[in-house]
Structure formats: C-alpha cells, structure tokens
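Cast an eye over my tokenised protein here and flag anything odd:

===
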Amino acid sequence: MTFNRIAVYGHRGWASSAIFNALVSSGAPVKVLYRPGSDISSLPSSVAKIEVDVENQEQLIAALQDVDIVISLVGHEGVQRQHGFVKAIPSTNVKLFVPSDLGIRALDEQGLRVPVNKTKDGVEKAAKDAGIPTTVVVLGCFAESAFSIGIMGIDYPGNRIVFTGDSANQLVNICTRNYVAAAYAQIFASTPPAQLQGRIIGLSEFKATGNEIAATLKRKHGAEPKIITHSLEKVENEADSCIERGIPLSLAWWCRKSWGNGKLVKGVGDDIWEVKGYEKATLEGLLVDGRLEPYRDVPPQVTQAFLSMFN
C-alpha cells in the first residue's frame, strides 16, 4: 500500500483531535503544522511537528515540502487563516488541499450570508481561482452536538424537540465523531489524490426524521417529548436578524431551516463515502442504549443561548 504524505493544520479541537489520531493510526506519514504557542505535548513522537505562522509565506512553503495532502481542521475562528495555504500551495508540490468544513453545503442565498459559511466559501473559491486541487468533506450534523446542546432543536436530556417547517417528516443527516474520523483516515491515507480532486464528499452514518427522533426520545424517557413548532418564516427571519447583528446563532437558525425545508440532506450531496468495515451507530443505540458520547465543554452562555431557541 502506498500512503500519502499528509500535513494537518488544526489538531487540538474536539473533532480535529479524533480525526488526527485516526490519520496517524492509519499508517500514513503525518506532520502537524501548529501555531506558535500551540500545545503539542500530547502528540506522539512519530509525528513530525513544525511550528508555522501561516501568514509567513516563506515559512509555510518550506513546511509544505514533501507533502501530498494538506488537511485543515481548524474551527470557525480559524477558517480565514486558510487563505495562507491558498497563497502558499501553488509554490509547492502539494497535490490536494482539504479545507475545513465538517458541516453542510450552503445551497441558498441566506446560507451563504451566514458568516462562517461565507468565509468557508471564500476559501474554496480562492483555492479554485488559484488552480489548487481541493476536496471538501461534508457531514450534516455531529450526533454529539445535535442531540446534546440544542443547536438543531433537539434536547435529548430534556426530552424536547422543535419541529421546524416540515422537519417532522424531513431527514437530518447525522454522523458521530468516531465515524467522521474513520472516514478521513480511509479517504486520505492511501487514496491517490488524483481520485479525490474536485470532489465534495459526503458522510452519512445514519439519517432520521424529526418524527423518528421524537419516537426514540419517548422510548428513552418513557414519556412523550415536549414538541415545539417553529415555522420556516420564523427561523428564516431569526437567521436574517442574527446575520444583520453579527450574532453567531445565525448558523443554528439556518441549519434548522435547512432541515425543515429538506435542503440539509441535499447539502451533503450524492458523492457519499461508505467507511468499509465500520459498524455504524444507530439512533436507537445512541439515544436509548446510551451510547452517545459527550460533546465538548460549551460555555454556559452558549448553552443558554441554544436553550432560548426552544421558545
């Protein structure tokens, strides 16, 4: 088996740390590009580590020598920094750039005005304009956040669910963190970059309608979940208001709208990568059998903001 030489930017986050570990375990040679001051004490000795300021083009170009694939896993606050890679990669032999996404594609005008979506789209367009081969991975929703903190209108601990538009009957696409990590390892460790270039690869561990989720909540709690109903008009107006005021909740309102109008699943696309040999999680297993793993620590004010969206 021939492995790709991989550089990872963004290795410490809740999702990125699991993806990074899976890539290392795949056997592919991995190097970490990290910002000055970033904690690398937990990284295995087998992994090359290079401190780099992505705004320093000479430094970044040097760090990308002997690299086939650059995988960025930065969170929302770091998406803009990826333009440093767009500037540097044309001066290297990098064969593929994988910008950070880990969400869904914005298929409407409002979605492209949501700040983080707008920034991601800007990075992808800049890479295309620079002639850089790219691959984008999209997954819909992480199970751990969708069910635990209320971002999608599902309150698993509190036995509540918000039906937005037709979300009772529309599917939401869900992946666990471990499934996403396994997918990244299978996709990028040894697949020839030429087979990945230009693709938007979707991940789908399972899908469920709002009604199916509500029924599962009932089985878990032994009681009917509290159901709140929001119209598509309401969530669209809320998203617009948040965009205009620069409030991050615009992403949550827009995601709920995308579920309610059926565009969330469409945003994952048709090029679905099936992770071979992986036993997929199920709605029943996660919610009824208690296999849902915890999400990262969320600041209390953020949790309170999501809970306020159940009104």
In short: The domain at 6-138+176-202 is CATH 3.40.50.720 (Rossmann fold). The chain has a mean pLDDT of 95. The chain is about 35% helix and 15% strand.
